[in-house]
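Internal ticket #5521
Category: modeling
Description: The requester needs a full-assembly model to guide mutagenesis choices. All entity lines are attached below as received. Residue total reported by intake: 531.
Assigned to: D.W.
Attached entities:
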Amino acid sequence: MEVFFRQICAGLATGGIYAIVALALVMIYKATRHVNFAIGEMATLSTFVAITMIDHRVPYWLAFVATLLLSFVAGLTIERLVIRRMEAASHAAAVIVIIGLLLIFNSLSSWIFGATIRTFPSPFPSRTPFGITWLSSHQLGALATTLALMGAVWLLFHRTSLGLALRATADNALSSRLAGVRVGRMLAIGWGLSSAIGAVAGMMIAPILYLEPNMMAPVLLYGFAAALLGGIDNPAGAVVGGFLVGVMEAITGAYIVGSELKQTVALIVIVLVLMFRPAGLFGQKIVMRV
Amino acid sequence: MTEPLLELRNVGASYGARSVLHDISFTVGEGRVSTLLGANGAGKTTTLRAICGLVRTSGEVWFGGKRIDERQTEDIARQGLAQVPEGRGTLTGLSVEENLRVGAATRKDKASVASDLSHVYTLFPRLDERRKQQAGTLSGGEQQMLAIGRALMLRPRLLLLDEPSFGLAPRIVAEIFQLLATIKADGVSMLLVEQNATVALELADDAHVLETGRIVCSGTSAELRQNTAVQRAYLGIGAAR
């Protein structure tokens, strides 16, 4: 029972990181109907930028914030330079472009920072507080960071006028434009935010997985499964999906399939959701009356 | 004569190779309500889209002394031109109150936004009752009221309305036009596109009849009501038996 409980906790800790990735995916999907598969590789590159700063003796949290800002600008720039031009293009063309971005960012990471596996520091104290033994200090810290991030994102979207404009843009771009909302700017900000959120996932998973150019590939897979499970158009659903997928991964990995087949769990979730509940658990429950 | 609030000069519009409007010219005066009448496909909606920069146009559009064709839709709205779009444009996933707040997205003064919000709730008590409700769950008539309320939140100098009666029961249409009369009495200028010519001519001061992308007849509402061709085509009076 003790082991089972530990597995659940560990699952929640990594699930939080999947939830962050899922949230980053949902944000872009809601606004543009594109699944940004490149978000993982963008996060890896952000994490490399962070470690470079930390290597140069920049304090961790300063490097953390600077990385978020840089990632925000990078996401914004990608939208302005690349994604905006895909507005009139077919969906397939946009998918190809996004996969192209994925490959470009992956190669950039290898090219600039090399393919060697590196450790990434955890900013949290080495001892867990309150004598907690069922989670490592980093897992606990990552979980707290996840929850703080979720709270901040919620406040941004529901308590600020920028958040309202972002949600309006995602809901009905034409009506938003007619109300004077600068829709193009909102889409760019959405990409920037998504990219910054992805960077948090990268920096929180790196101490667990080790940093290398392909670090985020499995995380993206789980994050995508989480987003689909929760409903790819529902931010809250995506977060719940992230925790569910994390726990599923931990339990099936420990008791059923073993660690070699753990990633298959994510794929099975993706396939099952698409087959039986394409809108996800909490997807688009919007009722329309005409 | 004072300068008109809105002026279209030889406006043409096309969707790709298909040209929909030809050489449209008319004005809307400050404080007045003008209506565009016409059958389905005559180009009424396209005219409104052209004014708001949603379709490629030729010719010139002037609003409040400034030329606004070639400007972005967002910027045109920020000039004080609010459109209640065809199909109401509800932000379905947002609450009623959030829909109204989006309408005030361009405004910084929180106090005046709050007072306009309560003004809209006074005009539309049904929206007041449903502040927190998801807008997509409203009935058609309520969504139309929400669309008008959202446009009013911009504090528009000119309100463009695209078929506010569309798909609504006669009782609701009457209710909505009564509210539009109240809004007109508040001094809001309007350009109204409508298939229901009877109610439109009752509200409007001036009217223009659009046929296959051309204005074929203009005048005051009273004049057009007396026009036998208009009576036959749009008011259902004296139709050939």
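Resolution: model delivered.
Comment from assignee: Chain B has a mean pLDDT of 92.
Ticket closed.
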